[in-house]
Amino acid sequence: MKIRPAAPGTGIVFRRVDLDDFEIEAIGRNVAKVSYATSLQKKGVLISTTEHLLSAFIGVGLDNAIVELDNLELPILDGSAQPFIDMITSAGLRVQRRKRTYLKIIREIEVRDGNKFIGAYPADGYSVSYKISFAPPIGEQSFEIDLSRDLYRRELASARTFGFLHEAEAMKNLGLIRGASEENVIVVTKDGVKNGTLRFPDEFVRHKTLDLIGDLALLGRQIVGRIVADRAGHAMHTALVSKLLKDHSLWEETMDIGESQNEEPALPAALAEGVAPRS
């Protein structure tokens, strides 16, 4: 995988170099299927497991890039967004001349499916709140992060994906987790974590939050608003993206993100314009 600079206004574009440089834009209309991961598809060409990289892009404020791949699945690496963060910061970022356009939530919207829920609400800045409920040993966990305060790298980036041992075979039969192993997935059994110690006591819900941020990146713009999710998952994340993109009365485009009530910029000042990798 290679990440290349892109012109202002390009957004994030995946390029399949093994298929004559076919390009798939990272936008909601190209969502193909979601189960254990989010996939994009355009004219029959597929890109799978996009959420960790897109989440990392939001975490560092990267707006425009070409992501080159030579197969359909992004590398899982250590199961978190941290290796992508390291890759991007090592290469460096540059501020582009065009001002960033934000998607500002102006009317609330909620998506419900039984006891599962996700909603978007007007707010200053960008915050995400997530709750999960699994069988033991995970149980119930909750986490909230104010992305307006540039906390992503410290509080979310290194949270790894996880899976239950009894589900592993089913995931592989679906063509997922091709690169997964005990080196990059927290393996959960009925007795606890099978492979090592957790990076955070609540690493499970932190990773779900990381996933959500990556899926919401498919809106094509950074958000100004509050997102709340309870036992949601990729299907509901992308359903919210679809509903927002279809109903323009729910949001407005803005370049003015103002000041938060914490007397800090609604997004870090260094990220106030479009950003791309250094060439």
Question: How would you describe this protein?
Answer:
The chain is of the alpha+beta class. The chain has a single domain (2-277), classed as lpxc deacetylase, domain 2 (lpxc deacetylase, domain 1). Helix content is 20%, strand content 34%. The protein is built from six helices and 19 strands. The strands form five sheets. Strands 9, 10, 11, 12, 13, 17 and 18 form a seven-stranded mixed β-sheet that branches. Strands 1-7-2-3 form a four-stranded mixed β-sheet, with no helix packed on it. The longest helix is centred in the C-terminal third of the chain and has 14 residues, at 203-216. Residues 259-273 have low confidence and may be disordered.
Layout: helices, strands, pairs:
Layout: E1 2-5, E2 12-16, E3 22-25, E4 31-34, E5 38-42, E6 45-48, H1 51-60, E7 65-69, H2 82-91, E8 93-99, E9 102-105, E10 109-113, E11 116-121, E12 126-133, E13 140-146, H3 152-155, E14 162-164, H4 168-173, E15 186-189, E16 192-193, H5 203-216, E17 222-230, H6 234-246, E18 251-254, E19 273-277
Parallel strand pairs: 2-7, 9-17, 12-17, 14-15
Antiparallel strand pairs: 1-7, 2-3, 4-5, 5-6, 8-19, 9-18, 10-11, 11-17, 12-13, 15-16
Helix pairs in contact: 1-2, 1-5, 5-6
